[in-house]
Backbone:
């Protein structure tokens, strides 16, 4: 097998954390080293590392960092969990490392499991896509959202590796542009045909019959199957239903939150106004404008055609391995 | 009556055309002078002036420019019409000036009519909005899209002037950000409360019960009531229907195209890749990425709750003054 065109998103490097600085993509591939819990928290808050499965590994590595630097573990765990409220995987990774005798070994195990799990998830999901499928995806649920391989993009990658020739409509994903910056970059490196669109184009693409499936990731899935994911996901789900296009959610079992009864109980993070009102320091709107910047939305279970996890395909919330 | 806080978008200045250079907003209010048909065509193509009703006036003033500079009128008319294919008003303004004995006088008449017409349109539409309505709008169908006052924003402005206290969710409107740059600027100058959102947030806002009505403009309305408007409008209409939120289209009668049987017959302009892949010269995506950039989409008549024109409110396409 040839070398993976996508390096690990985050790894434990014997005493510190090394991660791809996603704030610098697609301009340049730069590795960032975090040598304290504070540095890692800052990397998480500023989206140098993001994506629910990657945050699971980051949470565990944060506890390992605290252990390595002699910080109190519980205090470090609290600060890590507070960085991003919506993704349940972050708290899950923190808890797993806290409960382990050797947090660093546990963090390494979580990272290794992630890639293997995503390959299994991808193989299950690939079978849902027809040959030559034109798949629309939102945000980045790719290798960069995980330790490697990806969840939603893992499904597309597995279909590509199986010779099913998928092509991808990449939603740019305002305001932070994870689609334009990260998903397009990954797909280019993987040699998977893709076309960038503004988020507002999804309705037109579906109406003209150019979308065969929507595949997205998830930041948290409630016990009833409601899905929290990047803002804009819910609108896509409504459009997909209106056009009879299947809407698939690809996420590892660690994204399921049995303690959360439904979408209304999922905390939705608000992020800074500047993400919407400016870009790379350039103002996009008049000074003083009020901004509402919800980072996530909730898609009700009844709009989800199927969930893809490493355990298989669930056609209904009751079939999820909760 | 106090002075209008919004200067005329475009005016005939005795031998040349003076217009607000909308490429410079919201940073600075700069007036651009076009002294030849070529200069005006370039201003239209690069969106220094845009918006269906404003393009009607621009088309007529272009013919007046040709007459003033001694260019062949028919050739100028063809070049003007070719600059933007979707808005029917551009061709309408060109034709009116061509048919007039004095194109300049006709252009001045069209401009004056526009503001008066929009005030009538606004008064009709304002009655559709409940008191304290939270209105979502897309793109800019404001004073800057017209000679003055606005169509969709004219409805909101008339409600504001009538003491009905509307507030506005302003879709930023990727890729060209007419919402963030122009609509937010207008509403600030008018003192109407507004909040900027990324386009992807509409579904979440409707799901949380924070939208009482959607009001948009139109670039062309076909004989069956299908509406071509800024890309993303159709997705809003589907979301509005899903949530039981009324969806209103505000446009002057000159936007109606009886010669166009339905939405499928409306040409949809494709615009340059760079509008999506870069912003203010900053690349947003990896080099070489393919882009699909449809500037408009078509909303089927059955998703439109009512049309607002200067003649009144039409609850069904058959009631339109075609």
Residues:
């Amino acid at each position: 097998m040839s070398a993976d065109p996508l390096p690990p998103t985050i790894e434990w490097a014997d005493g510190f954390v090394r991660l791809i600085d996603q704030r610098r993509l697609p301009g340049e591939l730069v590795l960032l080293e975090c040598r304290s819990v504070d540095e890692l928290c800052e990397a998480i808050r500023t989206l140098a590392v993001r994506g629910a499965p990657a945050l699971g590994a980051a949470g565990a590595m944060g506890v390992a960092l605290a252990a390595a630097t002699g910080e109190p573990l519980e205090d470090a765990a609290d600060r890590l969990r507070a960085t991003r409220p919506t993704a349940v995987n972050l708290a899950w990774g923190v808890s797993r490392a806290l409960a382990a005798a050797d947090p660093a070994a546990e963090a390494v195990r979580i990272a290794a499991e992630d890639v293997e799990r995503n390959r299994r998830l991808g193989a299950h999901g690939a079978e849902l896509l027809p040959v030559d499928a034109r798949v629309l995806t939102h945000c980045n649920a790719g290798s960069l959202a995980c330790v490697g391989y990806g969840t939603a993009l893992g499904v597309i990658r597995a279909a590509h590796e199986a010779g099913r020739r998928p092509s991808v409509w990449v939603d740019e994903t305002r305001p932070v542009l994870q689609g334009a910056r990260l998903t397009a970059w990954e797909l280019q490196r993987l040699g998977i045909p893709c076309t960038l669109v503004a988020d507002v184009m999804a309705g037109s693409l579906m109406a003209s019959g150019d979308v065969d499936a929507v595949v997205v990731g998830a930041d948290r899935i409630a016990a009833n199957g409601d899905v929290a994911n990047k803002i804009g996901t819910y609108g896509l789900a409504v459009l997909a239903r209106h056009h009879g296009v299947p809407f698939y959610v690809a996420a590892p079992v660690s994204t399921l939150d049995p303690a959360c009864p439904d979408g209304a109980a999922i905390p939705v993070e608000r992020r800074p106004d500047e993400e919407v009102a400016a870009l790379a320091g350039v103002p996009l709107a008049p000074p003083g404008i009020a901004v509402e910047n919800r980072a996530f939305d909730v898609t009700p279970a009844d709009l989800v055609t199927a969930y893809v996890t490493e355990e298989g395909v669930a056609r209904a919330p009751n079939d999820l391995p909760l």
